[in-house]
Design a protein that fits this description.
Layout (H helix, E strand, L loop, with lengths): L1 H9 L37 H9 L19 E6 L2 E4 L44
Length: 131
């Protein structure tokens, strides 16, 4: 009997009722209020692998933590899709106000102090042996 109940519940999406809990990028119901601009997830091409990775990393277009936003992440590519950025980890547009499980804060590179010696150059490649 339990199986029959689950089958009926999963069939709701066939009739379009499964979309009741879908939300737009502002976090509100997609059916409420005036039409909103397309989400950043609609920008750029998202193949199956990118879609799966977005799901695994639990990417969402609006963060719950103001200290963790895509636009302050080392993986974020600002302006890749206009107002929406991109991500080095997965394809498609990324909302600057979004977040995922792979959030890594950008690390500021300290500027060299005036008069400080320059960083050492990379070692030269060894000379080829005469042939």
């Amino acid at each position: 009997m339990l199986g029959a109940g689950l089958g009926a519940a999963s069939g709701l999406s066939i009739f379009g009722l499964g979309a009741c809990n879908k939300s737009d990028s502002s976090g509100g119901s997609a059916a409420s209020g005036p039409a909103k601009a397309a989400s950043c997830a609609d920008k750029g091409e998202i193949d199956e692998a990118a879609a799966n990775l977005r799901k695994v990393l639990q990417y969402k277009e609006k963060t719950d933590n103001p200290e963790k936003k895509c636009n302050s992440c080392a993986q974020y590519e600002a302006g890749k899709y206009g107002d929406c950025g991109g991500c080095k980890l997965f394809g498609g547009g990324v909302n600057p106000e979004g977040v995922c499980l792979s959030y890594a804060p950008k690390v500021a590179v300290p500027a060299a102090a005036p008069g400080a010696p320059a960083a050492p150059a990379a070692p030269a490649a060894p000379a080829a042996a005469p042939g």
